[in-house]
Design goal:
Structural class of chain A: alpha/beta
Strand content of chain B: under 5%
Number of strands of chain B: 0
Largest sheet of chain B: none
Radius of gyration of chain A: 23 Å
Helix content of chain A: 40-55%
Order of helices and strands of chain B: HHHHHHHHHHH
Structural class of chain B: mainly alpha
CATH topology of the largest domain in chain A: D-Maltodextrin-Binding Protein, domain 2
Distance between the termini of chain B: 41 Å
Number of domains of chain A: 2
Strand content of chain A: 15-25%
Number of domains of chain B: 1
Largest sheet of chain A: 10 strands, mixed
Number of helices of chain B: 11
Number of strands of chain A: 10
Largest interface: A-B, 43 and 39 residues
Oligomer: heterodimer
CATH class of chain B: Mainly Alpha
CATH superfamily of chain B: MetI-like
Number of helices of chain A: 15
CATH architecture of chain B: Orthogonal Bundle
CATH superfamily of the largest domain in chain A: Periplasmic binding protein-like II
CATH architecture of the largest domain in chain A: 3-Layer(aba) Sandwich
Amino acid sequence: MMKRAVLGTILLVAALLLCSAAVVSAEKIKDLNATKHAEDRLLIGTTTSLDATGALDILAEKFAQENNVKVEWVAVGTGQALGYGQNGDVDVVMVHDRAAENKFLDSGYGLDRRVFGSNYFLIAGPESDPAKIAGKSATEAFKAIADAAKTDSKVVFVSRGDGSGTHAREKLLWKGAGLDYAEVNKSSWYIDAAAGMGQTLNMANEKDAYVLSDSATWNTMAGNLTLKPEITDGSDLLNVYAVMRINPEKFPDVGINVEAGKKWENFLISDATQKWFADFGTEKYGKPLFVPAKGDAAALNVTEAEISSPVA
Amino acid sequence: MEDILSAINTAITLILTWNPDVIEISARTIEITFTSVLISTIIALPLGTLINFSSFKGKKTLISLIQTLYSLPTVIVGLVCYMFLSRTGPLGFLGFLFTPNGMIFGQTILVIPIMTGMTIAALQGINPIISDTIRSLGANRLQFLTSHIREARFAIMAAVVIGFSRAISEVGAAIMIGGNIKGHTRVLTTAISLQTSMGNFTLSLALGIILLGIALIINLMMGYLQQR
């Protein structure tokens, strides 16, 4: 019995040793260096639309060339991106949910919020528009959808339902329409997709339903959809994209890349990048996907400093 | 149906034109899966053997527990690993979060229970008459072990194959721990998940077909090894 226990222990230790040896060899020193939150790597937690449009690919490459810093990003919903920020897992977050951003700044996790661009959310729906929302403001449209859905089974709404920035805006709009979101969420005409924008749009398309979408993703997918954009602007649909760096004092031991984070913020609000935003997407979609923030402070309801003051 | 045909078409085109993105993602998939299966094998086979040939109180409970872990949802593994590997988590110092190493870590945890459990089952499946014969022929402890493993080799090989299948097809852990970073931690399953969320169903399906193709080739190779 004793012998067996000894044999077992030896086997286990050998297995563990072999295992750690394999891990080290798999690591391939190069990778190890590249991933130790080193100063030559900037990690961003970003909302999906900036990734899905291909904007980040181009910006990251430019930035890498100018600064010799590798840029990598994890594309998730705004909620999850801020969650990564709160754990110190990313150096910078790029998001679009003002209320959540304010909370993030107030709690001391985020620093130096800068606004670099905007566009509009849009409400899309079936061509027949059974809730007659065309021409209304977004808030009125949400009220009309909720009202029409009570009597007309053709009126359906598909929600992201994933805690993303788009989902946050949707909740704001229901509230603005004087409705209790908890009630809306329980309604039979309300479908909680719990999915990314593309998947949600596809589901809405299948169900001939109304849906709130960010315009960047909409433009990249519109060709495959039979839904029509019903409402495409108005102050209640304004979608403002902001960048914040993570407060290194909250995470003294993990090596937040402060320098690169500051540079990235300044890069986004720089004249060159702002000019680039004014044009990005025109070639492929016939119109730009984002409006540069520069000179637009009043319309975006942000301070001039948040748009043009470089991070020191 | 049309979608499926065009997906097959896309898959073939992607491979024939040697699409650099697809090749890179596929290569990374194979590398990560192989490494995690290798580590899992090195841990799970001795562990399963040890458990099978030891007698101790609670052995049955332990085996039931291991078998329960077969059902471990990959997202939960991903989430728990994320919490541990987060920069502020207990294993944050490893710097594994959002890296291929982290994905290997997660897949290894995912695969070990199933490989251990199936190793135990493989050894249990040996006819007791064979065991008695080996013992009566005067085999020492090591000979006893090796002859049992040889006797159960096909079933043990099956354990490795199943471990491989679980690792290559899982997406929950890969996306939570790896973050699906382009050019760094994007593998076939996370790319499929991304393309699906972007509504590119045909491309998703094509990538799925490529994944199955890789699995087929590897299974054929395993089958060839078994025959020898």
